[in-house]
Task: inverse folding
């Protein structure tokens, strides 16, 4: 399955209509060179993972009235376990554009696609109902700039395990634009009604919708398409990613998840990043209501990392990644960078903001917010304050105590005991507010001392020990 996706995503990503120009032998030669290059690139990439791509025949290109009819030969991709993905001949219509080195392509994957095991028997197969695939090849990007792919009724079947994956609809689209060797534009993936099961139980679990929305802003081309720049996050320009997974269903309704990530443009050697996570669920344990009240129905997380010195961090990550091949000098340089990083972060004003880290249910809520700042005065390299507010603490304690008395499973009893200890910590560490609400302020000062509500951790532990012994 992975081999198929790896090959398909490179070869069949789709685009808009274009202006047809002369169809000639020069165009045939250019296309033959382009598709040969693409296939050879896939061979090299797959070879790095001990996979072997072979073609059974030659690329065929015929001239039509206003397009080129390209036929790729059957392709086989074998892995180290001697499984072979077999892709039949693929027909691609290619239309010239105003730019002689850019092309518009439309293609259809041959279906079904088979995977054979080490004995040569068919072990897996993929079928596709309706499909539409159009792409625009950009010579400047050396990749596909415009994509419009739609597949319907995708079915994956594993013959031996009888496992089935069914995707009712899948769409991939992008519209990347290049200016001054930088790329701007969206890249989106959408899937609807995904079902997992077996031949005897086709809908064992399901996902209603999955969306991934990426947006690039003035991202250098070499950072977009070359893994060698993975660690140098400053090269990425502005980048955002949003994902939604809705209506997850197994034995129970697992709710919906959202997640977002954003990196803003570098400013004077530093970058700002933001992460958001969300969860909304309801009937996660609908038929086991003994524990339903203890599970959050909603989660909201929003974190900011500001003024991160990306060049220093990139060097550390790159050096650490190549650790097995390090020389003594590079190891010393790494140690020096690690030593100087806290001071660099303090000078740049690096901050970690917890805008919210919140959990909610019908009977309790737990909210956290605060700021941590890099500091070269503190032995822990940071100072800050975090505020925690908890409601419904007594009710949770009552539920945990009741379950602990009734539970017979030792592992669950241990988990319940740990939960009670955490409740006792909140009661001992935090200030009791109105009703069943507790609040506490955790501080880290320049001396490297943790304080809770202005009391040292040692004093709080002494209070907790007395409370716990009563």
Result:
């Amino acid at each position: 399955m992975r081999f198929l996706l790896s090959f398909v995503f490179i070869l069949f990503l789709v685009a808009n209509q274009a202006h047809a120009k002369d169809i000639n032998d020069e165009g045939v030669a250019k296309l033959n060179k382009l598709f040969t290059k693409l296939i050879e690139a896939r061979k090299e990439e797959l070879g790095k993972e001990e996979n072997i791509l072979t073609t059974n025949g030659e690329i065929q290109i015929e001239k039509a009235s206003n397009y080129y009819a390209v036929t790729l030969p059957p392709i086989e991709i074998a892995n180290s376990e001697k499984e072979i993905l077999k892709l039949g001949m693929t027909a691609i219509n290619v239309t010239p554009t105003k730019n002689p080195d850019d092309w518009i392509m439309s293609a259809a994957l041959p279906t079904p696609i088979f995977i054979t095991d080490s004995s040569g028997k068919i072990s897996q197969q993929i079928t596709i109902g309706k499909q539409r695939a159009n792409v625009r090849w950009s010579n400047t990007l050396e990749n596909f700039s415009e994509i419009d792919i739609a597949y319907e009724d995708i079915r994956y079947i594993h013959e031996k395990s009888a496992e089935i994956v069914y995707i009712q609809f899948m769409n991939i689209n992008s519209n990347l634009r290049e200016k001054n060797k930088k790329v701007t534009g969206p890249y989106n993936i959408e899937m609807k009604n995904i079902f997992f099961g077996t031949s005897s139980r086709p809908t064992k679990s399901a996902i209603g919708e999955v969306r991934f929305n990426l947006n690039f802003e003035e991202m250098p081309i070499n950072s977009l398409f070359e893994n060698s720049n993975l660690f140098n996050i400053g090269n990425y320009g502005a980048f955002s990613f949003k994902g939604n997974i809705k209506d997850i269903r197994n034995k129970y309704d697992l709710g919906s998840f959202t997640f977002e990530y954003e990196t803003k443009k570098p400013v004077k050697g530093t970058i700002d990043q933001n992460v958001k996570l969300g969860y909304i669920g309801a009937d996660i344990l609908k038929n086991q209501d003994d524990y339903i009240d203890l599970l959050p129905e909603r989660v909201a997380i929003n974190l900011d990392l500001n003024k991160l010195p990306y060049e220093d961090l990139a060097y550390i990550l790159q050096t650490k990644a190549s650790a097995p091949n390090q020389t003594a000098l590079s190891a010393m340089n790494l140690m020096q960078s690690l030593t100087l990083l806290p001071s660099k972060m303090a000078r740049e004003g690096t901050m970690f903001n917890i805008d919210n880290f919140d959990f909610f249910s019908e009977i309790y809520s737990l909210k956290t917010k605060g700021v941590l700042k890099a500091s070269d005065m503190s032995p822990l390299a940071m100072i800050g304050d975090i505020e925690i507010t908890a409601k419904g603490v007594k009710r949770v304690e009552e539920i945990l105590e009741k379950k602990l008395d009734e539970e017979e499973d030792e592992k669950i009893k241990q988990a319940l005991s740990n939960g009670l200890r955490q409740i006792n910590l909140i009661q001992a560490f935090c200030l009791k507010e109105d009703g069943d609400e507790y609040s506490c302020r955790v501080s880290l000062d320049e001396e490297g001392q943790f304080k809770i509500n202005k009391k040292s951790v040692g004093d709080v532990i002494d209070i907790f020990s007395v409370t716990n012994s009563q």
Summary: The longest strand covers residues 182-198. Residues 25-47 form the longest helix (23 residues).
